Amino acid sequence: MWRAFARVPRALECGLGVGQQQLTLTQHFPHSKARNFCRTSYLSKHILQPIIMTSSVKPKVVFVLGGPGAGKGTQCSKIVNRFLFTHLSAGDLLREERSREGSEFGSLIEDYIRNGKIVPVEITCSLLENAMKNSGKSLFLIDGFPRNQDNLDGWNRQMSDKVDVQFVLFFDCDEEVCVKRCLIRGQGGSGRSDDNLESLKKRIQTYNNDSMPIIKYFDDAGQVKRIDASPDADQVFREVERTFMTSGF
Ligand SMILES: Nc1ncnc2c1ncn2[C@@H]1O[C@H](COP(=O)(O)OP(=O)(O)OP(=O)(O)O)[C@@H](O)[C@H]1O
Ligand SMILES: O=c1ccn([C@@H]2O[C@H](COP(=O)(O)O)[C@@H](O)[C@H]2O)c(=O)[nH]1
């Protein structure tokens, strides 16, 4: 019976959708042995019930912010390998939407990205919410969002009662280092239409004018965990790892 109980936290950890109120057995016990086990009345009485009762727990979100090229994506991959998080990059979701056949927002998104401007929140927030729902997971790193006041207001309207934001992981890195990293990334064949000096100047300007005030807002609210992003990626991750561990992950 202990083994059965041991499954419960994993089902909870991996199975909650955004705002989902109830879990289904087959979703969370997909293997045939587990299915047979699930049919027993013991399960429905003693185990399924607590799952349903606690399944209204909201998904948890960590916002990951920092300048272009600060290393957000690199560190998110490392976090995913070490902890139970799912990585959602707002930029990647927008690039995917831009390339999706039939997307009505394709050319708008391309224009915003190339010019380092911030896409209207209705688009980005819907992409994020759908990705969260479709993942079926409950622990998210939201990378590169919210980036301006419009993003923050839209998020608060659409998502604040559906998820719990844990903290903001802020990768602090000098402008010159950020630009250099993006240019190297572009020369390495990233294929990104904004890894060039002209776009980068605009992205840095947007970051300083629009994103920094949002980071300051979270910092004033005591929600920012600052990481020095200038050392090499493994060294940065050691600090990230410490941060997540001391935050209970
Ligand atoms: N600590 C580091 N030291 C040196 N190079 C790094 C470091 N972290 C990441 N890089 C490299 O810098 C480039 C940008 O990193 P990454 O894509 O993770 O940044 P980002 O913050 O997600 O960027 P963007 O906001 O533009 O998507 C990549 O080529 C990556 O390999
Ligand atoms: O919330 C967001 C995230 C991104 N954008 C646009 O995409 C590019 C690239 O973002 P990366 O995080 O560097 O991949 C960014 O400069 C914005 O133009 C956005 O509008 N909103």
UniProtKB/TrEMBL annotation:
Binding site for CMP: N151
Keyword set includes Nucleus: yes
One Pfam family from the record: ADK
Entries under PROSITE patterns matching the protein: ADENYLATE_KINASE (PS00113)
Residue span of region NMPbind: 89-119
Cofactor entry: Mg(2+)
SUPFAM superfamilies (alphabetical): P-loop containing nucleoside triphosphate hydrolases
Location, primary (coarse class): cytoplasm
Catalytic activity: CMP + ATP = CDP + ADP; UMP + ATP = UDP + ADP; dCMP + ATP = dCDP + ADP
Protein function: Catalyzes the phosphorylation of pyrimidine nucleoside monophosphates at the expense of ATP. Plays an important role in de novo pyrimidine nucleotide biosynthesis. Has preference for UMP and CMP as phosphate acceptors.
Family in the record: Belongs to the adenylate kinase family. UMP-CMP kinase subfamily.
HAMAP family in the cross-refs: Adenylate_kinase_Adk, Adenylate_kinase_UMP_CMP_kin
Quaternary organization: Monomer.
Protein name: UMP-CMP kinase
Species of provenance: Drosophila persimilis (Fruit fly)
Lineage: Eukaryota, Metazoa, Ecdysozoa, Arthropoda, Hexapoda
Gene name, Swiss-Prot/TrEMBL: Dper\GL22014
